Amino acid sequence: LVLSLTWLGPALGDEEKDGEVVAEEEKEKEEDEVLSDEIKEEDNVLVLHEHNFARALSEHQLLLVEFYAPWCGHCQQLAPSYTQAATELRNESSPARLGKVDATAQTALANEFNITSYPTLKLFHDGNRTHPLPYTGRMDTQGIVRWMQRRAGPSATLLHDTDTASAFANSQDLVVIGFFKDLKGKAAQAFYEVAAETVDMPFGVAEAAELFQAYGLSADTVCLFKKFDERQTNFPVDPARGLDTAELTRLLRIHSLRLVMEFNSETSNEIFSAKIPHHMLLFLNKSSSEQLSLQDGFKAAAGTFRGEVLFVVVDVNGYGADVLSFFGMTPANAPTLRLVKMENNRKYQMEQDSFSDTAIRTFIQAVLDGKVKPHLLSAEPPEDWDTRPVKVLVGKTFEQVAFDETKNVFVKFYAPWCSHCQAMAPAWEELGERYKDHEDIVIAEMDATANELENITIHGFPTLHYFPAGPGRKMVEYKSTRDVETFSKFLENGGMLPVEPPVVTKTPGNSTGKEDPSVLGTDETRDEL
Predict the structure, then answer these.
(1) CA 48 to chain centre
(2) How many domains in the chain?
(3) Residues 209 and 306 placed together within one structural domain of the fold
(4) Is the pLDDT confidence value at 511 over 60?
């Protein structure tokens, strides 16, 4: 406003002074508002800063605070769900409230609470400023609401008699009830902690002797009730070790899944978040009754490996069609079986035609014992793969090129859909042109979605690895700026960047958040697999 008034000064005459006064008054008013401890709201979310933060803590028993950055895409994506959750909690007169802090403007608060990425959500309980709890729920409206509700009220419902216990156990598909002789004991308190975190299942608690008898229990036990597979699963509390919260959470997650999952839009998130180390997949055409019958042996084998292997049925002509390329398959390959190690995406193919439970158990055990080699994908090499400036590698040609002891080989591992890979493609082609006549330097690339390597796992795109000449099968990951000049310095210096004096630049308002767009070109901007 002041700048525009200055530009229009000659035409405004004496009114210029009045405009400047108004601008100054507005500025002073804004400063007074920032310095005040008044708490304003935006869509039922408390707008917090360093001058009203203490007041907010004193006035609200449960306060979930989002530390955000205005430019952060994840924060922008969360915003509608966050405001909706705030509105729902406000409408039900919950003691839980939601607030937000612009961590790029309120640097004192960001530093106090060690905010290094956005969004970061922390829960403040009873005004305790020194030990906020990290938010561990889902980043959607219902996830936030349920997480806060569990902390606002009792995390488990007290069940007094067999009628209330029976009604509670049958109220939903999954219900957890803890039976404890002493509800004030350590085991019961640990159970309440698990209940507060596991918000997608209702939790009940019982201590009445008649309930122990009704459910066939004699000692402290946590029971999971399901309307599928086995009706009741018991997890007895170890009298010596007590109840381990992490172990109980793990067991509840494992046993809350069906023994055999069907891969579809409703279950995919459950399947990939299950934290079960291996997935056994049965690919079949569900329109074929003959193939559908193969599920019997598949399910019969599943119980043996519960918690270690998750059994999943994939319809090759349905929702599962989109994942076939990941396995190098087409619908014509069904029925077939694959086992996947989730930590490195290694795939193992069951070669025999038998789909009996015995054959499936034998195959899985052999993989777990390390007796089966992974099934590696490889595309066919293009006819001119080695005549281009950038050599095109595939799984079956990688070894002979990358580990040629007479060559220094610089390889880009990419995904065709990766935007960062597409952005750096011209630089990589230019690098290939620059070194195409160097006999001891090879610039290459490999589509890591269509080719797999036994001893190298690619976790993000693009990934750049340098394989120096000489014995020893050495490999160096390139982690610097992705431009031609920096690539060249790296190559000319034998696979490392020369040490240069640091350049200090000051960027006002720059933050340490993970989603800083100013770091484009670093490893932090990779598209993850």
Answers:
(1) 28
(2) 4
(3) no
(4) no
